[in-house]
Specification:
alpha/beta; eight-stranded parallel β-sheet
Amino acid sequence: MNNKFLIFRWKYKHRTLIVLCIAFIVGASTLTQWSAQTLTEQVKSVESFIDSIGVAVHLNYGDTAYRQYEEIVKPRLIELGVHHIRGGVNPKDEKTLDKFRDLGEIGIKSTIVMDPRRISNPSQAIQMAKELEGSIEAVEGPNEWDINPELQYKGFHFPEGVRLFQEELYAQIKADSATAHLDVLSPSLARPQRASQLGRVACDVGNMHSYAGGKKPSQKLDKKWIQSARIVCNRRLIIASECGYHNALNKPPNGHQLGVSELASAKYMMRLFFEYFNRRIKRAYSYELIDLKPNNKKDKPNLNYGLLRVDGQPKSDFMAVRNLIRVLRNQEQDNSDSVVPAPLKYRLIGDLKNIHHTLLHGGKGIYDLVLWQEVNSFDLQKNKDINVPSQKIQVAFEQEIEQALTYLPLYSEVQRESFFQVNTLDLNVPDHPLIVQLLIEE
């Protein structure tokens, strides 16, 4: 049996600095010999986690399911609970611009892709950003030119054309007082190994399209995708403006990533947001909100990335992410970013292989301990779900927990178990997030 002690100690100065110190101690089953490793982790609030969740949209695709803006797209975005979307638009497309403005008025802010395929020069980006004032929060450089060799800007192809456009875009956005506050994301790459060809570009935030190829969310995330984004935008913050899974289980053998079941994508998407958050990725945009067109054969990946089916009905991943956000928001928030939490000391005991976790502060005396198994949940060779057994672990607290509630958002937003005045919890951790909400008397 492995034993893993996590000791959390809070330090703060002038009520602004909060540091979470974790000590990991792994021992033999006899508990007589120990080895120790000390780590430091930045503590963040529930709201900061929810703020890291976004979804990509194609509001300008009038011949797809996105044409049903009032009937499906807008109400489902509100139901999902996200505050950030990413998409593109032609500067003359007033109908789509109105949609972005409309969503901005209800608190859903946009990152707009500025690509020479839609705008002839960066000055149009400035004008469009001004027209979207109040709804736009960032602009993004050219989209995946590394796999489109025919594209060019001022006679230059990738990488020179992309680099030139990005330099002009960044300079003009920052030179205008009305747009200088906007973050400028670096161009996206479909093939991260081509980052060295593009090299360093002008940007505020790194960008990646970090698809896991139908595997677990952390698959090659650190060594492949994050490293690529840093080559292009130095060691700045990173946004994944596209990431996710498609459900085209019958796709023909080609270069496109393999599909997974709706159940697997639901498990993966929830875990993805936590895995990215733990790595301090500023935001991850699930690609995408709704399937574009009907595809009964399930053989066209690009038509099957949606969290919603083409008729607007929710898939499992839509419901799971919606439930996740609702569970975390359903707390008595007390300005959790400014509240200094009481010390929390606990240890995890048991088989901790592949057990990942996130600890969030939800308000005065409220914590959310989220645990999951970071494993593959779908067999890509057999094209079927993997039945991953839950792992039994124990959480032991140094102080008494007044109340503990457990949730499994994969299935529902309703609590499953409740415990009162406890010092230990016996938990079964599945391959999807288990949320343990803790109330501690302060």
